[in-house]
Amino acid sequence: MGVDNSGNRVLRLFLLYFDDSVWWVANTSPGPGPYYGEGNVCYLALDIHLPVLGTPGHEQPPAPRASLDCSPNPFRGSVRLSFSLEGGKDGSEARLCVYNLRGQLLRSFPVEATRNEQQSLSWDGADASGKPCPSGVYLVSLQQGGRRLATRKLSLIK
Predict the structure, then answer these.
(1) Between 19 and 87, whose confidence is greater?
(2) Greater confidence, 34 or 52?
(3) Which of 75, 97, 147, 149 has the highest local Cβ count within 10 Å?
(4) Is pTM beyond 0.90 here?
(5) What are phi and psi of 24, to 5 degrees?
(6) Contacts for 138 with CB less than 8 Å, ≥ 6 apart
(7) Domains, the chain, ranges and CATH?
(8) Quick one: which of 153, 82, 85, 89 has its CA closest to 123?
(9) b/e code 22-34 from CB counts within 10 Å (16+ = b)
């Protein structure tokens, strides 16, 4: 395997074949042994160019490392959601989202990402309209730039 001028990988496939169909026929001539016709041996090289799906310098940066903690868990009334981002961009918006087990978004908290600084907020167990959520298991997810950085399971007890 090689590389062309555009940086694409090149796979070279070699084919060896005979162009006379008589060559393959055995024992068609009088006398002992198989008959090998006067065919030509042909050689073919086929280059297959495989494009590179990403070019150097255009890779997506690695996701920042994040920590997320929920306490107390299980909770009654309200819960403290503590989080921090390592390697994220300062001042960029992140979101702390609460989902039920069906994947429905119940509540979303916009938070400002501050690198390597522990932050926290309180969730009162209510959805976005202020209606109290029933007892059950919920998922809390820290997201930034369309990526889920950390997810924790949370139990609400009434």
Answers:
(1) 19
(2) 52
(3) 149
(4) no
(5) -85, -10
(6) 98, 99, 100, 101, 106, 153, 154, 155, 156
(7) 2-50 (no CATH), 65-156 (2.60.40.4070)
(8) 82
(9) ebeeeeeeeeeee
